[in-house]
Amino acid sequence: LLAPIETSSPSLKTGAYILIGVGALTMLMGFLGCLGAVNEIRCLLGLYFACLMVILITQVAAGLVIYFQKESLKEELSIIVESLIENYDPLDEDKRNLQDTWDYVQRQIACCGWTGAKDWENNEILINKSMTEYPCSCSNSSKDFELDSGFCNLDDPVNSTATYADWPVHEQGCMDGVEKWLKDNLGVILGVCTGVAVIELLGMILSISLCKNIHSEDYTKVPKS
Fold first, then answer.
1. Percent over 90 (pLDDT), the chain
2. Membrane spanning segments where (predicted)?
3. How far is residue 54's CA from residue 155's CA, in Å, rounded to a whole number?
């Protein structure tokens, strides 16, 4: 997500920063919660409760943004991926991490390109090679099983110039593949999200209960006049 400017978008960069912030807040929250519980410090427990509430609200807000802005996010992601495919270069170390991530996506989902293998016809290197090479991570051939990145040579091309239709690659585009994966695993995703939300609510309830107990103990210790 924190890629070079030409392959980034404001929405995805903002999302990345939000995730980093939530992760840092979670670490701080856990430390404060443990410290407050062990030493029975009400203000730290109150801060722990507030942090949990902020995280829960952030998660709900993020879910609503993704749901209502999904078409806009899909368009932005499409621009990023198409630019990545067009400028994909196995020898470019500066983009290695981003390119390896995309290769991983294509291998795991068994897809090729964003809308299909035709997207790779815009790659500058493949154009210069007259399409006689193809992305190894797209391959559906067993001989390319161990080659998970870069370009593979097309065996015995019919002509000196080939097209994506001549490549031994997956026909499904990654956009459809990702949507299918999300639909197939929607129950698991919702279950995990619900479980996390329930744990956070329990943490909030326990922190408030502990605060009340500490307050009651402090009140009983106050000498009566």
1. 21
2. 16-38, 45-68, 188-211
3. 57
